[in-house]
Amino acid sequence: MENKGLPLELGTKDIGKLLLQYSLPAIIAMTASSLYNITDSIFIGHGIGPLAIAGLAITFPLMNLASAFGSLVGVGASTLLSVKLGQKDYSTANNILGNVVTMNLIMGIAYSIVMLLFLNPILYFFGASNITLPYAHDFMVIILLGNVVTHMYLGLNALLRSAGSPEKAMFATIFTVIINLILNPLFIFVFHWGIRGSALATVISQITVLSWQIYLFNNKNNFLHFQKGTFKLKRRIVIDSLSIGMSPFLMNTASCIIVILINKGLLKYGGDLAVGAYGIINRIAFLFVMITIGLNQGMQPIAGYNYGAAHYSRVRKVLKKAITYATIIMSIGFIIVQLTPHTVASIFTSDQKLIDLSTTGLRIVFIFYPIVGFQMVTSTFFQSIGMPNKAIFLSLTRQVLFLIPCLLILPHFFGITGIWASMPIADFVACTVAAIMLYFQFAKIKNK
After folding, report:
1. Which regions span the lipid bilayer (predicted)?
2. Which of 13, 19, 52, 352 is most exposed, with the fewest beta carbons within 10 Å of its own?
3. What is the pTM of this model?
4. Is residue 373 part of a domain?
5. Cα–Cα distance measured from residue 283 to residue 340, given in angstroms and rounded to the nearest whole number
6. Host domain of residue 277
């Protein structure tokens, strides 16, 4: 393969240059992915109305759950693929590719059928009201009909990245955003298809890029390509893929539960527009979180390689740089939101009440954002050095151990403010736990 010299540079090249080299494609892809979601909300907010944004926010748990099943296959299989390529086991690598297609077909179709059969009760459970249900229902019907495409697109993109083509994976994500940016206003403002038009733009953009991915994997000149006989499920590949993918699956599932609790609480204490305000806040928060995730993806191989090679000074350097950059990224988000929350909310809607609700929520939710990057980097760091249990614990502390109790208790005393405040409180406590765990981990490294 063309990247034979890569491990050597991981242990010798300047850490700052390495981190930039490995992070930039991932950051660009993650930013594009965030913009993909933000543009949907902007067009829906201005083209359809504030209640449509609330309806869209109701669909977040369903989207998170779909991502959970997608990551169960995609993340697990792509990690397994990296190992097999490192071992020069191209036969198994091609079997993994075929099995990913089959697993995504099965999961994607099964998920769509179950959700479509019980869609309205599920949406009511997720926090829909009689007013927002039509918007959420119309959006999700089209998204679920195209769900298998979404699973396949995300799965093949993960394999592209692991097969040494991060640029192609990045371009695939960027293309979906560009197509979506063209089709969304066309379907909403010109054809007047409403929220269905936005969903259709999303599915069509993914179908277009999936066609390109299939073309790439059909090229027999590539060492990794579709082959006859590789689509039959192999027990070992399925078990290993699902085992590795269980961690991100659990994290996405936890996110789904959190969003349900937030939406139901906001509906109870603030009404439909409060749910819409969270839809806006979530999109903005997601942008900075995804950029930091891109940074983490760049840090991961550098930290893992140097930890394995016992180059502990390089491990400390990459961790410090990653924490510094993550803090800068999240601090930019904090400054923008605290200084111009009204302007930020106005990007999504012209409804004054929704803008006011979003402004209050943004300022509270982002209070401790400058330190959130530290917690995210620390969690990824433990995963990078072969300590997945600590990584899972850190990832779930914020969502399960701290945020859920806050969401269940604080609103009883402080109403909607209690819901907004639950998020920064969980952030602060989770960052404290991460700092303690990191301190003890480096004490062990120092002893080595």
Report:
1. 20-39, 96-119, 139-160, 172-193, 199-217, 237-262, 274-295, 322-341, 361-382, 391-413, 419-440
2. 352
3. 0.88
4. yes
5. 16
6. 1-32+271-448
